[in-house]
């Protein structure tokens, strides 16, 4: 694995390490945490120009042309006193921070930026521009819990080279500077993402729960699926029969999705269940139903 080098980026106060090529920035972050000779304070971030074994959801590969995306992993240090229910909100905090940073560039171009539960950022509710992964890691102190957030934001790719019609980038959505200077835009986005992440995690730690911190309300407002009928079906089911179908009520205090089925029962769908079993979440139809009280 290539040794990372320290670099400075305007508006980023936390340490940033750079590697030209790596199997995964998540792996580099984990190795830095394991090396007690290298300080890795809160929000230490690793960025790369390319990943040879980038990981997407369900362990799928995630590949992009060199220098055309923000490929980053950020180390988050949390006090062990933070309630376990709050840990699930770290991914949401990252997704909201990415969404906010991208919205500053895309909303003036007439695009909406929203979240797809549990870990994707979408443009106009249809095209994926960012995916986020999280993993717990051994902490360097008995007083902290360490997590690594991995995220990849498509920046400079032209539409013709994107892997699917459901993928997009800033350049493909009309951000001219993203196509001309993807590295400069990536560094600007990183500064904005880390600032937003710092604010949201500080609020979560200070209040101790996502409701008081304002994260739950912010996440629900950024999720168009709330208040709609959705289906969760296993991709291994040849018949396509939904495992669950019903009304998306909102988010639980743990960050789980609340789903009410037609028999009146409510279900909590944990992000871990979706990420590990591969149950896709899709809208049943476009008609929005009135959100029921939880």
Summarize the structure.
The chain is of the alpha+beta class and 294 residues long.
| Tertiary shape | globular
Distance between the termini: 49 Å
Low-confidence stretches: 54-61, 275-279, 285-294
Radius of gyration: 19 Å
Tally of contiguous helical segments: 8
The fraction of residues in strands falls at 25-35%
Using DSSP, what is the number of strands?
Answer: 13
Mean pLDDT: 86
- The class by helix and strand makeup works out as alpha+beta
Order of helices and strands: EEHEEHHEEEEHHHHEEEEHE
Major β-sheet annotation:
8 strands, mixed
Q: Give the helix level as a range of percent.
A: 25-40%
Query: How are the strands ordered across the major sheet?
Result: 1-2-3-4-8-7-6-5
Oligomer state equals single chain
Task: Please characterize this protein's 3D structure.
The protein has 294 residues and is an alpha+beta fold. 28% of the residues lie in helices and 30% in strands. It has helices spanning 25-34, 84-87, 89-106, 176-180, 182-207, 210-213, 215-221, 271-277, and strands at 5-7, 16-22, 45-51, 69-79, 113-116, 120-123, 127-137, 144-154, 228-232, 244-251, 257-261, 266-269, 281-288. The strands form two sheets. It has an eight-stranded mixed β-sheet, sandwiched between helices. The longest helix has 26 residues, at 182-207. It is globular and about 55 Å long. Mean pLDDT is 86; it is low at 54-61, 275-279 and 285-294.
Index terms:
294 residues, alpha+beta, 8-stranded mixed beta sheet, 5-stranded antiparallel beta sheet, 13 strands, 28% helix, 30% strand, disordered C terminus
